[in-house]
Amino acid sequence: MRCGELVAGLDVGGYCADCWRARTRRAGRIARRAALAATLPFAVYLMLALPPTREWRLLGASTAVVWYFLTGLIARRVALEWIK
Ligand SMILES: [Zn+2]
To answer: What's the CA-to-centroid distance between 77 and ligand 1, angstroms?
Structure first.
């Protein structure tokens, strides 16, 4: 990912603005996919495990959404470390 471009004020082995943006975009894409892959089985499990009432469905849905965002955040950090 390092283009070797010399940018003033940048450490050796650092990223120029373009490379940084490309890297962040890639990490975001990987993270969305990973979060989805982690959330779908969890959402299915919640649907099967929780009683089929409106309240529990709503609670299960919001839990799945929170889970999606949390796994997305974690996956993004991991992906950024990965694609150095
Ligand atoms: Zn670059």
So the answer is: 20
